[in-house]
Each structure stands twice: as structure tokens, then as C-alpha cells.
Amino acid sequence: MSAPDVLVIGAGITGVAAALDLVQAGARVEIIDRYGPAAMASGWTLAGVRQSGRHPAELPLALAAVAQWPELAARLGAETGYRQDGNLRLARNDAEIEILRALVTNQRAAGLDLTLLTDLDDIIDIAPGLSPRIRAASWCPTDGHADPVATVTAYLGKAVAGGARVSMGESVLGLTDRGGRITGVRTDQRMISAGTVLAAPGIDVNSLLEPLGHAIPLRRPIVTVLRSMPQAQMLKPVLGVANANMAARQEISGRLRVTSGAQDWSGAMDLVDGRPTARPRMRLVMETIARISEVLPNFAEMEIEGFWGGILDLTPDALPVIDHVPGIDNLVVAAGFSGHGFGIGPVTGPLAADLALGRAPRLALDAFRFGRFDGMETAEAALTLHG
Ligand SMILES: Cc1cc2nc3c(=O)[nH]c(=O)nc-3n(C[C@H](O)[C@H](O)[C@H](O)COP(=O)(O)OP(=O)(O)OC[C@H]3O[C@@H](n4cnc5c(N)ncnc54)[C@H](O)[C@@H]3O)c2cc1C
């Protein structure tokens, strides 16, 4: 293939959604990934698809994404595992009730269908396996969840059918800039010259940006993820909690996939069967089981299929960067999704594609500017309401 108009770095949800949009706009596209589709955050994820709990700046993206999700499988011609079964965010004490009360007030004012449930019977009707000690919950019936690997695979398949070239198992080692443009992309196998580079490399974004004199201030905490063996249908919505220290959903396979809050991470990762793997500490696994079991009492009795660590790319304001890299015309970055970039992928990928093609972005990107952290040394954001 001749030089691509756009080289997309990263075959997670952001990169593949961007690639499809670019191909459909008539661009010659190559998508490159060091490991393979959904090898990092887009495989580690809980994969909740939610509007509830979103930052006001991200809510329009989440609303636009949820408008697409129900038709996505038909559009992509392959399963996404999407289920619009709602999001139930639980309060376990008085302080959490107040957090949810404020959330519901604010998000209803912003137009979201979100209700505060204070009667336990109403909550148990939605999720029968819950502990009777739950005090209240916010309920968003239009939220849901999906199968992340199936979704990324579906996007990639459609992009390839549209003409995208896919180079998996190839690592971008560096970008060469000259005169305010990227003039070359050096991989572990070759040099690529692309019209524009769209970088969606997740937690590794700064290894590409720092040699160019730029960086996004990122904290990279770990989230412990556990998965049970298949269970009879017991949980339709995604469960979250007011302080974001756990979340849970039941996959369509019947497996429960549950997550902890964010914890400090040593930074060590190794490859298992060609996939990057981060390992949570025993203590975090035990804490996660205990915390989930407080709200879903029969969780502790389920057989475990597996567990893993998921690493987040947490920015200081827990919002992503979707922008040109300052001073480099043909380099667009979409990263820093801070633990909630899966559900909005059908919108953030195309927004990055808009920038790569020089089109006016279809939604406002002011809150996601690269330069907003200028002068900031460290990332201080707490994990917002994930799940
Ligand atoms: C435990 C956990 C739970 C989460 N829960 C939710 C949730 O419920 N809802 C939600 O919306 N979001 C959730 N998220 C966040 C969401 O999963 C991520 O924001 C999203 O998947 C990020 O997608 P991405 O495409 O930007 O990055 P990634 O999926 O990380 O993809 C980046 C890709 O770039 C490749 N790459 C990196 N560097 C290079 C290089 N130099 N050369 C070649 N390739 C490279 C990597 O191999 C990787 O495949 C969660 C995340 C985690 C970890």
C-alpha cells in the first residue's frame, strides 16, 4: 500500500472507531498496534456504557454515543454484546446518599433520565441479588454494557472491509518531527511516512509525546478486575457505587466481571500469551471480593475464572485529551480517557478523525484541549464514577 493518509496508532476502541470513520470518509488508513486489537484498556475494561455520572463536559459525548450503541452491531455487521439494561449506582451509607442526590439533581437538570430510588423494594426489583443493606440508588435505564473485545473486533472488521490496512504486532518506536510536522514514523520493523498521525495509544501516550517535547500529565493507577465462572442470569444492569470503589456487571456469557477502585501501581507489566499483563496484589484481590460481596452477597461463593489488573490513563481533571499536539499540524492525540473511555468510543474515535481530516469537529472539544494542563506537574484527579 502507498503511504496512508492517516496512520492510526492503537487498536483499542478509540483507534478502531477512528479508523472506521476515516475509511468511510474516503481516506487511506493504516492501523498499527504493538500487540493486537483490544490488548490493553479496551480488553481489561468493565465495559459499562453509561451517561450517568459523567462530567458535564463529557455528557454530550456519552449521550451521542448511547444514541448509536443500539444500532452499532447492525452498522458494523457483527456482534457487540450491547445490552441497554441500565446502570444502578448504589449508596451504602448516609454520605453516599447525599452524593447520589446531588448527582441526580445535576444530571436531571442536564436532561438525563436519572432517578433517585430510596425504597429498597424498587432497587431489589431491578437487581434481585443485592444486599438488603443498600440504602439508596440512582437509576439510569438508558445506560448499559457491551462486550469490549467483540466491539473492537467488529469495528476493526468493518474498517478492514472498507480498505483499512492493519499491522498488528508492530510497535511504533518514535515520531520524527520537522518544521511543525511529523515526517516519519519509526516502528520496530520499518519507517512509515503518513499524511497525518492519529495517536490513540492509551496509557503509553507519553512515550510517543515526550521525545517531541510534550506530555499529558497522567497518573497510571491499577484497577483489580475479577471474573467468575458463568452463572444463571442474576444481574441485568451495571452496578456502581457512589464513591467509585467497585463496579460489577454480568456478561452475556453469564460471567460476573467486577472491578475495584483505583490503587497505586508498581508499573511492572509482562507478556502472557503475547498480551500485556499487570498483576494486582493479593490484598487488592481480597479487598475487591469483600467489597463486592457486601453488595452482592453470593459473589464470594462463585467459582473464579480469572483476575487481572487494568491500568488507567488518569488526567488531572479525569477528562481525555482530543486535540492536535501543539505546534505539530499533522499529529492528533486521543488519550487520557481516565477509566471511562469505552462507552464513548463510538463518538471519540470519529471526533479524533474529524481533527485528522481537518473537518470541523461534530461536537465541542474545548474541554479536551491538549494545553489545558500547562504548568501542571502532577495528576491529582480522583477516579470519577466509573462502571
Ligand atoms: C479496569 C477498567 C475498567 C474500566 N471500565 C470502564 C467502563 O465501565 N466504561 C467505560 O466507558 N470505560 C471503562 N474503562 C476505560 C476504557 O476501557 C478505556 O478508556 C478505553 O478502553 C481506552 O481505549 P483506547 O483505545 O483509548 O486505549 P487502549 O484500549 O489502551 O488501546 C491503546 C492501544 O495502543 C497500542 N499501543 C500503545 N502504544 C503503542 C505503540 N507505541 N505502537 C503500537 N501500538 C501501541 C496498545 O497496544 C493498545 O492496544 C475501564 C478501564 C479499565 C482499565
From TrEMBL:
Ranges in coiled-coil conformation: none
Cross-referenced SUPFAM superfamilies: FAD/NAD(P)-binding domain (SSF51905)
GO molecular function: oxidoreductase activity
Alphabetical list of Pfam families matching this protein: DAO
GO CC list: cytoplasm
Domain FAD dependent oxidoreductase, chain residue ranges per copy: 5-355
Keywords: Oxidoreductase
Transmembrane segments: none
Protein name, UniProt field: Glycine/D-amino acid oxidase-like deaminating enzyme
